[in-house]
Write a structure and sequence with these properties.
The chain has 101 residues and is an all-alpha fold. It has a domain of 36 residues. Helices cover 45% and strands 0% of the residues. It contains 3 helices and no strands. The longest helix has 21 residues. It is elongated and about 80 Å long.
Length: 101
């Protein structure tokens, strides 16, 4: 019969180190995966931030309440434009998608 393991920090460290050295997947999971994630995330987020993009809000509701909300959200810098119903000249400039049969 096996005797119970003694408690202690260094005993736990030794036991875990034995597990890491015996299991082939453990070093990959412990070291390679976090390193790879760090490299990928640092490459993605090290790019310059794009600023100053224009935003267009189409107010189909045309109520005073939505106009006030948009003005408040944009610190009064929003220019409001009204658009009428879509006429054939205002519809998409792209040709319609035809299904190939």
């Amino acid at each position: 019969m096996r005797r119970p393991a003694r408690p202690g920090f260094w005993l736990v460290v030794r036991r875990e180190w034995r597990w890491i050295t015996r299991d082939r997947a453990a070093p990959i999971l412990i070291f390679a995966v976090p390193l790879l994630a760090f490299i990928i995330l640092s490459a993605v987020f090290s790019q310059q931030v794009i600023r100053g993009l224009g935003v267009v809000v189409v107010d189909n509701d045309r109520s005073q309440k939505t106009a006030e909300r948009m003005m408040k959200a944009n610190s009064g810098t929003l220019r409001r434009a009204r658009y009428g119903p879509a006429t054939p000249s205002r519809r998409s400039t792209f040709p319609p998608i035809s299904s190939a049969t």
